[in-house]
Automatic annotation (TrEMBL), chains A, B:
UniProt name for this protein: Transcriptional regulator, GntR family
Domain HTH gntR-type residues, every copy: 8-76
Alphabetical list of InterPro entries matching this protein: Bact_HTH_transcr_reg (IPR050679), Chorismate_lyase_/UTRA_dom_sf (IPR028978), Tscrpt_reg_HTH_GntR (IPR000524), UTRA (IPR011663), WH-like_DNA-bd_sf (IPR036388), WH_DNA-bd_sf (IPR036390)
Naturally occurring in which organism (per UniProt): Parageobacillus thermantarcticus
Molecular-function GO terms, alphabetical: DNA binding; DNA-binding transcription factor activity
Length: 242, 242
DNA sequence: AATATATAGTGGTCTAGACAACTAGATAAC
DNA sequence: GTTATCTAGTTGTCTAGACCACTATATATT
């Protein structure tokens, strides 16, 4: 595994060797690797050199050190392509429920001053206004009102809107969403909302406003949602970007 | 800058010292820092110890090494130290309000099965249980109950807890938080909560549960908070990691 | 049986060197 | 002048130890 006369640094050879064993499954998650002293003796190198190799693998998330116990293969990294940036449909499927949609309204309306600012269009510009009841396993989960500039997605139809708009935009229009800002807030259901969500007036609801941005930075959409407080929890993972 | 008899490791002291100089602007982007040998001689420590400090700062993006030339302060470190991963105190200050704290309870309790699993400790292990009313500009904003393994932060006191625990942990204990998982949910205030938050029973509240992880992956803390729905909105920015 | 205490093994920190690889500038040779 | 060479200074790699802090287990002690 280690060739002392290779031009490659020893720590690097060891690092790659261990990484390979992890990727090939010869070292499994949770398994302890040989101790630093043992590795040093095995390959007749200094412990500090072993540490340099292990340090790199720890930084890359392959290994986890536990003082007094040993060094272990890290639990498999979770792949999260768009951490929390899921559409309603994806969100529900991830929760093991079948998403559904009932379109209440599908209109083209002029942008109000507030919406114009949020979507970066002129006041009065054409916007789709889409009001939908979102279902999970057939039961109402949320009430959604979204606004999208007609200029960005010219050929939206009521049919498309009864499915996943995001999927349409990514697959057929060829635009992709890069980022979003969400604001969450607790409230209670008003009469109209309560009826549509099939809960009692005054029941807890989660208000969610999301603004999505395209890859080029243009705002794509503003969505205001009212989620049933008894059925929906919003989970978000945050990580310090190194 | 370096105290050899401090319980804090030498490399850490040096690391913090350099980081501070960068953050205060005493070392400017592009500027070369003293060479490793020079630092070692100045503080009468080993060069390997200096390297450990510098390595960490390079990994964190504060410094850039250039072989044969020197080590330089990195160009504009992107400021997103903990996007959304802020403590209550930071959160309130960012909103232009002055944070405050009233400690209701500060006990050591045995870990329940559920908490033991969340915090990765044995059932029955000692945990701090900290119950606090969090104030913003003197008015109640949230009710917080947090659990921290005593094994990780052995010397927590009621005094510390009346300020920012995160700041204490980062600055004095020398641990830093890498990631967190938060779950948000809408609910209504129960009687006890309503009294402490000074709202009516049944008023909307935002329930927030956060689990924080340290750099080494160990869970540090589980916090369950009840925020006043009329005063608090939770904002989160999400970005597709390329 | 419950509780201290020792012990072996682990990673964490640190030393005082060494030589290699690289950069930049000064100096010498052409 | 141009080119090659030397030289001082830098980071990169590596050694062979040392002691500390922590964990788990085995062993006395009570």
């Amino acid at each position: 595994m280690i060739n002392k006369h290779s031009p490659l640094p020893i720590y690097y050879q060891l690092e790659q060797g261990i990484k390979e064993m992890i990727e090939k499954g010869q070292l499994k998650p949770g398994e302890m690797i040989p101790s630093e002293r043992e590795l040093a003796e095995t390959y007749d190198i200094s412990r500090m050199t072993v540490r340099q190799a292990i340090n790199n693998l720890v930084n890359d998330g392959y290994l986890v050190r536990k003082r007094g116990k040993g060094t272990f293969v890290a639990a498999t990294k979770i792949e999260q392509p768009l951490k929390g940036l899921t559409s309603f449909s994806e969100d529900m499927r991830a929760r093991g429920m079948e998403p559904g949609t009932k379109v209440l309204d599908f209109n083209i309306v002029p942008a109000s001053a507030a919406l114009a600012q949020l979507l970066d269009v002129r006041e009065g510009a054409d916007l789709y206004e889409i009001r939908r009841v979102r279902l999970a396993d057939g039961l109402p989960m949320a009430l959604e009102t979204s606004y999208i500039p007609c200029s960005i997605v010219p050929d939206l139809t009521r049919e498309i809107v009864s499915g996943s708009v995001y999927e349409f935009i990514e697959k057929d229009v060829g635009l992709s969403i890069r980022s979003a800002v969400q604001v969450l807030e607790a409230s209670v259901a008003r009469k109209m909302e309560a009826e549509l969500l099939q809960v009692k007036e005054g029941a807890p609801v989660l208000l969610l406003q999301r603004r999505s941005y395209l890859d080029d930075g243009r705002p794509l959409e503003v969505v205001k949602s009212v989620y049933r407080g008894d059925r929906y929890k919003f989970t978000i993972e945050m990580e310090r970007s190194k």
